[in-house]
Structures are given as C-alpha cells and as structure tokens.
Amino acid sequence: MVELSVGGAAPDFTLARDGGGTVRLSALRGRKVVLFFYPKADTPGCTLESKDFSCLADAFAAADTELIGISADPVKKQDRFKTKYDLALTLASDETHAMLETYGVWTQKSMFGRKYMGIERTTVLINRDGRIARVWPKVTVEGHAQEVLDAAKAL
C-alpha cells in the first residue's frame, strides 16, 4: 500500500471499465482526474454519490477534469448501474482489489459486530502532472461532489 499524500505521485493503474475496454491513469496525464471510490454499485449511498458526480459532469469537463468511479463490482454490474441511472461518468472495476489496496481504500470494516473487507468511501483529486492534489477519506456523500468540483476548479 502506498501512503496517499498531497504532492505525492498517484499510483498508476489500468482497470476494466464500463462498456468494455480499460482506463489507465497515466493515459490521462495533462488532465485533472477525480477518483471516487465507492463500496457497492446500486446501494443508496453509492447511488446518491454517483448521481451527484454525474449531475456535475459537464462542470467537471469544463474544469478539464475526468471523473472515474471505482468499486470492486464486476464490469457487468457497473454497466447495469450506469444504464439504470444514466450516469455521465466512467465506472471502473477492480475485482482483484490490487488497485484498491494500493490506494489504501480496501480496509477492514465492521457492521453489527461482523468484520469484513470492503471499500472505504474515499475521493482523490489528481493534478495534471499526476500528483495527488487532495484526498477526502471517509466521505460523507451530501454536498461532496460540489466540494470536489470546487477543489478541481481551484487547481
């Protein structure tokens, strides 16, 4: 696991994406990138977060910022999720958890006393040079997408 620190290099990755194909971070160099990690497609909090980012997709594009939502869900589930809510952003899948572990978001969680591994809702803003500009750990969904957009515009 790499310690994500502001100013540090964002670890490169290649992941399967919705609609087929892959998304590679290094291929986006020269643009700002928002990676938002969410626990599970088509659950209430993840749906709200994805819809909020999607509603602001045009504003992110105007700020020269690519939006990528990432979960451990299979690509087919991501495809259904994107279609169901008409999401205007890229959804990537890391079923192996390798990239999620590298970014430190695959963590032990607990619900009703049961421990399990899952994604900690986190957002990372990467600048045009591939360096981490900001990290939002343990995200609260309400108002978050707008806060990230404001930070992207300020870069």
Automatic annotation (TrEMBL):
What are the protein's UniProt keywords? Antioxidant, Disulfide bond, Oxidoreductase, Peroxidase, Redox-active center
Domain Thioredoxin residue range list: 4-155
Family that this chain belongs to: Belongs to the peroxiredoxin family. BCP/PrxQ subfamily.
PROSITE patterns from the UniProt entry: THIOREDOXIN_2
For the protein in the UniProt heading, the enzyme class is oxidoreductase
Give the organism the record lists: Labrys wisconsinensis
Query: Which named protein is this?
Result: thioredoxin-dependent peroxiredoxin
The record's section on Gene3D superfamilies has: Glutaredoxin (3.40.30.10)
Q: What is its EC number?
A: 1.11.1.24
The function of this protein is: Thiol-specific peroxidase that catalyzes the reduction of hydrogen peroxide and organic hydroperoxides to water and alcohols, respectively. Plays a role in cell protection against oxidative stress by detoxifying peroxides and as sensor of hydrogen peroxide-mediated signaling events.
Q: Which domain of life is it from?
A: Bacteria
What's the short name of a Pfam family annotated to this entry? AhpC-TSA
Reaction catalysed by this enzyme: a hydroperoxide + [thioredoxin]-dithiol = an alcohol + [thioredoxin]-disulfide + H2O
